[in-house]
Amino acid sequence: MGNLLPDRHPNRDFFILDVSDAAPKDDMASMEHPVFSLSVKPDMRELEYQHDGKRVVVVPSGKGLATIMDKDILLYCISKLVHQLNAGEEITPWVELSAHEAMVATNWRTNRESYQRFEDALDRLRGTTIKTNIRTGEHTQVRGFGLIDEYEITRRDERGEIGPFGRMTQVRIKVSDWTFKAVESMEVLTINPKYFRLRRPLERRIYELARKHVGDQGRPFRIGLDKLQKKVGSNSPEKKFKFFLKQIAQDEHIPDYDIALDDRIVTFRAKKAKGFTRGQSMMAFGIPGTPSPALLDKARRAAPGLDIYVLYDEWRSYMESLGEPPKSFDAAFLGFCKKRAISRK
Question: CATH assignment of 209-270, given 3.40.50, 1.10.10, 1.10.15, 3.30.40?
Answer without folding.
Answer: 1.10.10
